Amino acid sequence: MEPPNDETGPKDVTASKDGADSTDGASKDEADVAAVHKAVIASAIGNCVEWFDFGVFSAGVMTAIIGTVFFPEEATGSASLRSFALIAAAFLARPFGGMFFGPMGDKLGRKRVLATTIMLMSGSTFVIGILPGYGTIGVAAPLLLLLVRLVQGFSTGGEYGGAATMIAEYAPTRRRGFFGSFLEMGTLTGYILGAGLVLLMDLALTTEAMHSWGWRIPFLLSLPLGLVGLYVRTRIEDTPTFQQMEEAGKKAQSPLKETLEHYWRVILMLIGIVFLLNVADYTLLTFMPSYLVDFLEMNDTTAQLITIGVEAVMIMVIVPLGALSDRIGRKPLLMTAAIGYIVLSWPAFALMQTENAIGVAFGYAIVGGLLVLILAVIAATFPAMFPTKVRYGAFAIGYNISTSLFGGTAAVLVGSLIDATGSNYVPAYYLMLAGLVALVPIMKIPETAGVPIEKAGELKAPEPAGSGAGPRA
Length: 473
Prior knowledge:
Helix content is 73%, strand content 0%. The chain has helices at 26-29, 33-57, 60-69, 79-91, 94-108, 110-128, 134-137, 140-156, 160-170, 176-204, 207-214, 216-220, 222-233, 240-247, 255-262, 264-294, 300-328, 331-352, 357-381, 391-407, 410-421, 426-444. The two termini are 36 Å apart.
C-alpha cells in the first residue's frame, strides 16, 4: 500500500500551531520512501511467518489433530488442551530469546539479528510438519515436538521487538503510526493465511486423509515463506538511527546491564500494557476458534469463517487507525481499548451465548474491534518508550516477559477455568481484569506521537512540537 503524499497524508501533532511541520521531524519526513517501504515489508513478513504458525496450530481442527497425533490415547485432558499446553510451553522460552537477541540487536544491529530469527521461526514450523507421531516413535514424539516449540519460542523472543524497532527507526516522524500499523497487518495476514489454509485443507480432504497426512502441509509451507522473508531482510540496510548512533560511538557497552539498571520502571509499564494486548490477542486469535467449537458447539467451518471474517475486517481498518494516531496521538486509542474491554467484554460474550451465528459474529467483532485499536499503534508506541542504545533489548525483554506470563498461558488458563467452573464467561472476566491493569500504565506513559525516534525514550523525553507544555511524567 502506497503512503499518502504530503498534501493528503495525515498531519500529526508534530505540526505547529500555524500548520508548519517541526524541524525535528523534517529529516525523517524526507526519508528515502523506497527504503522505508522495504523496511516495512521486511519487518511485517517476519510477523506474518510467526502468526502463520499460530493460525495453523490454533485452528480448531488442527488442535484436535496435534493433540491426538503426538500423544497417547490415554493422555489426560482434551486433545485441544494438550495442543494449547504446547503453545504455552513455547512461550517459556520467549523471555530468554528476548534477553539473548534483544541486546545483541542493540550491539550488532537490527538487520543481522532479524535475519537469524526469521529462519529459526520458519524452520521450526517446517520441522513440525516432518515429525513422526506417537504411533511411530512413542514418547519421543511429544518430547521432540516440545523441543521444536521451545526453539521456536526462543527465536520468536527476538523477532517482534526487532521488527517494530526496524519500522519505528525507518519511518518518518509524522507517519510512524501509519507505517507501524503494517507490522500488525502482517500479524493478521499471517493468521488468516494459516487458518484459511487449514480450512481449505479440511474442506478438500476426507477426515482420514486430513488426520493421516493433510495436517502436515500447512507446516511445510512455512519454510518457503521464511526464505522469502530472509531474502528481503538481507537486502536492506540497518536503520539510519542505529547507524547514526554507531558512527557517533554512542552504543551501550553492556546493553543488557544498562537496560536493567536504568529502564526497569519503563519495562514494568510495558509489561502492564502488553498484559492487555496478550490476553486480548491470544484469546481472540489462539483460543477463540476452539472456544466456538468446544464450548459453544459450533461446527469447525462456521467457527473458522467467523474468525477469518472478523480478522479480514481488522486488516481493512488497521492502517487508517495507525494514521489516525499520527493526528490525535497513540494514547487515546489505547485508552479507548482498555476502557472498552472493561465495559464491553461481558456483553460481547453474552452475544456469543445466543447460539445464533450472527450474534456470535457480532460479539466476536466487538472483541476484535477493541483489539485492533491496540494493534494499530503498538509498533509506533512501544519502541518509542526506550532510547536507541537499548531500544531493541528493553522492548524485547519487557514484551516477552509479559507475553510468556500472559499470552502463552491465556488459552490453557481460560480453557481450564471454563472446565472447572462451567462458565463460558471466563474469557470476558479475564479481559476485564487485563483492561483494568493496563489502564494505569497507559495513563502514565508519555505521548510520543510527533517525537522524533532519535529523541524518544530518554528518561525525560521531549514533548511533541507545538504542544506548549513541559515534559510529561
